[in-house]
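Lecture notes, unit on binding sites. The following record was shown on slide 14. It pairs a sequence with zinc ion.
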Amino acid sequence: MTLVLANAHLIDCVRPGVTAGVSVTIEEGRIVEVAARGGTRPAGAQVIDLGGAYLLPGLWDVHVHLEWPRIAAAGVAELTVQYAANAAQGLYESGVTSIRTAGTPHFIDVALKRAFATGRLVGPRIFAGGWFLTTTAGHALGTGFARTCDGPTGFVRAIREQMENGVDHVKLNLSGGVFGPSWDRHWHSFLLTEELEAAFAICRQRGYPVMAHATNPDAVKAAVRLGAHSVEHGYIMDDECLTLFREHGTWYVPTLGITHLTPAQSATSFESCWLEQRGLTPDIVKRAEDAAPEHRGWFAKALHSGVKMALGSDLRPLRDSALLEMELWVKDGATPQQTIEAATRHAADLCGAAADLGTVEVGKIADLIVVRDNPLDDIHHLRSLQLVLKDGRVVADHRQKARA
Ligand SMILES: [Zn+2]
């Protein structure tokens, strides 16, 4: 079965900008032709005329927790259904075709990854991290996705169990956060040197990338020096952190939404709508607002100094997360082009999938979205979603609704 997406404005994320009048041909789930004018129309091909709409790679969110809505004392069965629905909704309603998970209980992300990959259920591609590993008195303890371990042996055992259960990477917590009790502060680091060294050593030995939650200069530097694949958050950094990022080629995932999405900072109806559902406590709002200016400053410095960066939100639900985070990148000074590349090409690269995904090029898997209006003019235009394709198959078609 051949599918031709004709008459597209193409944002391929290989070169900057838009090419008009493009046809993209898909066979067996992969792109076989990208033609600037006309293109071949194999007999029997299904042709979808995009009418000049904008075709780009499917979006990625590389920092995802799937719990939504929060249900007190939810069992594993309840959580599994909830996560599957949340993930599928992100794919259908916002065009998030791939995610990397940053803390999921009971290896539900590993199970969903397999279900989505084999087509038993429809959902985004998942790069799974299993449990969020932290210490006693660590971070994210109230979330249900944290597993506590203490001492080098505690970390080594927990990490080996993660491997045995099929994770793709290991999520390691090095420091506190914005959301948490009074003893969980983002300027504090949580692991002893011997715990850090043991945790990184076992990951290195088995070739597992470390996704490191690090929120202050001490934790960021420790993570980068010990070989973290990506550093998440980086609310407080210093110039040496940025130098180390560049020297080691470590990825930075800034998660702006955590400090930026509060009522006083909210600038759009999408943000206020999200805030209404989220119901943040006054204490968390204050912690976020106190951390925001410095976070914003380091985001901009990292972006302009050539640190490798990809888009990850740490927000829920998935339907809102990537779009809100992308809008915040632009608000903080990234161009729409930089932002879209962070959420496509660079995100795929971070996940080790650059050979197959993240751009619109011949040979790549056809995970694609179509939006009515140009997102390079205004990043909010990503919300004018018309089509979502995964593996070359249309999984969501909003064109009828858009016309109505
Ligand atoms: Zn997180």
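Take-home: The pocket of zinc ion is lined by residues 63, 65, 102-103, 314 (CB under 6 Å).
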